[in-house]
Amino acid sequence: MKSVFFTIVFKELKSFMRSAALVAVVLYSFTIDIYVAGEGIDIEPRNVAVGYVDNSSGGISKKILSNLHSPEFVAPVQFLSQKELSNAIYNKEIMVGLVFDNDFEKLYREKKNTQLNVLLDATSASQGFTTLMYLQSILFSFEDIQIPLDLKIHKLFNQNSDNKSFMALSELLSLITMLVVILTAIVFVKEKEDGTWDIMLLMPIDAKLTILAKTLSQVIIVMGGVILSLGFVIFNIFDTPMNGSFWSFIFLTFLYTFSSAGIGLFVAAIAKDVMQVAQFSIVIMIPLIFLSGAWTPIYTMYPFFQVLSFFSPLRYYIEGSESIFYRGTSFVDLYPYYFGVVILGFILYIIGFKKIGRLF
Amino acid sequence: MADFYPVDALHVSGVSVGYKDKIAISDVSFEAKSGEIIGFIGADGAGKSSLMQAIAGIVRFSGEISYLQHKYHSPKEAEKIKIHTGFMPQGIGLVLYDTLTVDEHLRFFADLRDLKKDAAFLAYKKQLLHMSGLSAFAERQAMNLSGGMMQKLSLICALLHRPKLLILDEPTTGVDPLSRLELWEILRNIAKEEGTIILVSTAYMQEASKMDRVMLFHNSKVIASGTSAELIDSIRPYVYEKSLADNDENSISFDKVIYSLDSLNLSLHEPTLEGLFFVNALKERKKIANFAIKSREDDEVIPEVVMECHGVSKKFGAFVANEKIDMQLKKGEILGLLGANGAGKTTFIKMLLGLYSIDEGKLTLLGQSIKSGKDRQELKSKIGYVSQHFALYKDMSVKENLLYFASMHRIEKKTALSRIALYAKELGFEEYLGSFANELPLGVNQRFSIAAALLHEPLVLFLDEPTSGVDTLARAQFWQILQKLKEVWGISILITTHYMSEAQFCDRVVLLKNGQKVADDTVSNLYERFPKAKDFEDIFLEFYKEKA
Question: Do domains B6-219 and B305-547 have the same CATH topology?
Fold first, then answer.
């Protein structure tokens, strides 16, 4: 019994290693893709293009503008009229436009209610609004307002406010989901395509054993990829902290990959060829990933979707993993996440297992 | 009427086609005159299709082809002649669209060719429909046509623009005998009335007599060409009646015939076209291996009746694939399940194996009544199966494949290795043990597939079209192996084939037509029933006509 099980597992691993295309996809996903996600997706302002129209005499305005420097801003560009500035914003050449009216300096010097006009391209929403906050704090410090209140900030879990390691980790967790689903489905669908499906069915082997062995082989491949990614990208390049236990993350990942494999089995049961695997996987996975809180916090979602998100195993996996990495939650206190992953995973795997089992 | 000016002749000189490092066909030259039907005969991969594609101007080739005084050396240069050519690729209904009706197809292909739909065209369309017997089905969708009708429709679609050069790649393969006869009737009319040059390839030797000239293809070469009668005459001195005496080293014996280049002290036998392949093998000094099968290691008792079914039916939606079939497979019997593509052969085998559920009817396998999947689990180790197209794991070597199958059947590695070594030697694929399954020649693939099915020493073998596309020699070897297996192991074999001529190697044959059993008898009984029949093709034609 055991030997048959491992023969199937080894056979699938061997097949995988011999398929150059699949190996390349997996290696790329777990290294370069995660690196790009971490480096490339940035919500902090970087190289923001600022334009201005200065109708004032130019003393105060120059001082304000001198605060807009790299790396957040590129050197401000002067425009001769507000119309020109508007056009530049319309053409996406400028993101933030400042208009200094001709009575700007006079009013300021007289300490009257002074107004600085800001034109903002709100299509680059998050960058634009963060830029606005920057501007406000520049003006505040410039003004040197004396109020007897000060903020003393203690940054928890992510002391450097490092966004990159966060994005890279989110990407890794979503990627695990995608790859397990697709790889598991492909293992079965390839047999359908090559016509070996019938031969597989005619082996005097319990269908459960075959399905389990085939899933395990793909789980092993993805776990290998996860370790690779952790070592080379997550820890080495992005220097992500690991405040909790490494092994409890690995264990959670293992449980989670099995539950995603259940979705893979479901896809394998309904897909006729590898092309359809790709199509079905995306249709099923995208809502699951969006509902998980990987890209937007769950508390900002519409209430109905917040309820739905309880049914995404990825939600528990992401929350659990972030707790392990950043908060350093101990193994015992991780039980809600383990429960979420195990219960949903079990249900998904059984559904997938039943669905593909019917073909045996 | 046909005119015989060399102007419209086709000249092919020194044409070779290669893909990467493989040569598909090398150095072929021939000429064809207006109104001639030239037949290409040979196995899959022998180079027929490649040559056709070169002439049709679809693939790159070296050498020169000239037609209608236009010389071409590449697909680009061939563009000019394409308005005069019609091409029908291999595969049943490949050029058709499932949801279009017969009439819509004709209009669609006419539009593609930019034909004027004037009175003359409509008259010709009507004539084509009439000739193909499809007039009554003009409004039927392609997916509801039989294989034979699909091929006839594909053919008349290729004829719409009245091509002067018609290239047909295996239009009759897998089609029922009656439709094949009708297809040939159409071709002959077209050649005669339109003066069209027709190049047609086929897997059936029997069709050679319907061609003006035959070219035999083997291993990327044309090994002989001439009229069917000329070719048969050319090997007359080498074909002898089989005797019990040991035959000498330089001969091949198969069925009732011995082929030898040396003169033997035996009476001559009437040669067949297939004999040319054997004689060619002798000339190339190739030996047809003599297979020895050792007796099996275990001594399982095989029941007298291995498989029995009553009233077995299978439906796919409204389509009835098998209707109330009764069949019995006895111990030590080779039962041939014959029929055209779509007759229900594969569906039937898949029901026996449990790959399809049985909608209706009773099935007993190896003495055990089959009611659910559980009843089968235990039987799986007693059944050997070779699927259509020899499906095996492509990314593993022959040896790895065999070892994998062995371990699936829980055969100890030591035993498995010794059996693999034995079969590799006996069935002659030793040199290929390290190759990947998709690199093997089809004939080797076939023998290796049967080895995979034999590893666990089954009591019964189910073989689904194991000879399709395989060359004459390999097919002969394959039937020898089956005979030996039957004699030495005493196992039963159920084999499906669309080559009617292979019926003669079976103990008993069952003929399926549109999902129904139309004949079930021993070979000799059938010959007695139809004394006028020259061969099995004729016998089955009778059945098709009878019930049509």
Answer: yes
Q: Which of A100, A4, A91, A89 is nearest to A59 (CA)?
A: A100
CB contact (8 A) between residue B391 and residue A199: yes
Are the beta carbons of A201 and B389 separated by less than 8 Å?
no
- For residue A198, which residues of chain B lie inside 8 Å, CB to CB? 350, 353, 355, 385, 387, 391
Per CB-CB distance under 8 Å, the chain A contacts of B393 are 11, 15, 194, 196
Task: Give the closest-approach CA distance of B516 to chain A in angstroms.
Answer: 24
Q: What is the DSSP string of B228-258?
A: HHHHHHHTGGGEEE--SSPP-TTEEEETTEE
Among chain B residues, the shortest Cα distance to A15 is held by B395
CATH code 3.20.20.140 for B6-219 = no
With 70 as the cut, is the pLDDT of residue A159 above it?
no
Interchain pair B407, A3: CB under 8 A: yes
Candidates A2, A6, A8, A11, partner chain B, best to mutate (most B CBs within 10 A): A11
User: Which residue on chain B is closest to A9 by alpha carbon?
Assistant: B404
Where are the alpha helices (H) located in B64-199, listed in sequence order?
75-78, 102-112, 119-131, 147-159, 177-194
The residue of chain B with its CA nearest to that of A357 is: B373
Which residue in A7, A18, A195 is closest to B391 by CB distance? A195
Contacts of A360 in chain B (CB under 8 A): 373
DSSP state of A74: P
Which listed CATH number (2.60.120.260, 3.40.50.300, 3.30.2130.10, 3.90.1750.10) goes with B305-547? 3.40.50.300
A201 neighbourhood in chain B, CB within 8 Å:
354-355
> Would you call B387 and A198 a contact, using CB atoms and an 8 Å cutoff?
yes
Phi/psi for B512 (5° steps) reads -105, 140
Name all domains of chain A by residue range, CATH numbers in brackets: 2-41+160-357 (no CATH), 50-143 (3.40.1710.10)
Is the separation of the CB atoms in A104 and A98 below 8 Å? no
Token digits of residue A211: 């399905």
Beta bridge partners of B214: B39, B226
Highest averaged pLDDT of the listed ranges A78-87, A133-142, B251-260: A78-87
Mutate to test the interface with B, among A4, A202, A359 (most CBs of B within 10 A): A202
Q: DSSP secondary structure string, A61-87?
A: HHHHHTT--TTTBPPPEE-SSHHHHHH
Q: Cis peptide before A336, with omega less than 30 degrees from 0? A: no
- The pLDDT tens digits for B477-499 are 888 889 888 988 889 999 998 88
Domain extent listing, chain B = 6-219, 230-283, 305-547
What is the crossing angle of helices B442-454 and B413-426, to 10°? 140
Higher pLDDT, A232 or B5: A232
- Residue A319 CB coordination number (10 Å): 18
Q: Distance (Å, rounded) from C-alpha B52 to C-alpha B377?
A: 48
Looking at residue B2, its pLDDT comes to 40
3-class secondary structure, B433: coil
Residues B186-239: tens digit of each pLDDT = 899 989 988 899 999 988 888 888 899 999 998 888 988 999 889 999 888 888
Per-residue pLDDT, B98: 87
Q: Residue B380 and residue A204: Cβ atoms within 8 Å?
A: yes
ipTM of the complex: 0.76
Q: From A192, which residue of chain B is nearest by alpha-carbon distance?
A: B391
**Using CA atoms, how far apart are residues B149 and A196, in angstroms rounded to an integer?**
31
Contact (CB, 8 A) for A61 and A114 = no
Interchain CB distance below 8 Å, B410 and A196: no
Q: State both tokens at B319.
A: 């389509």
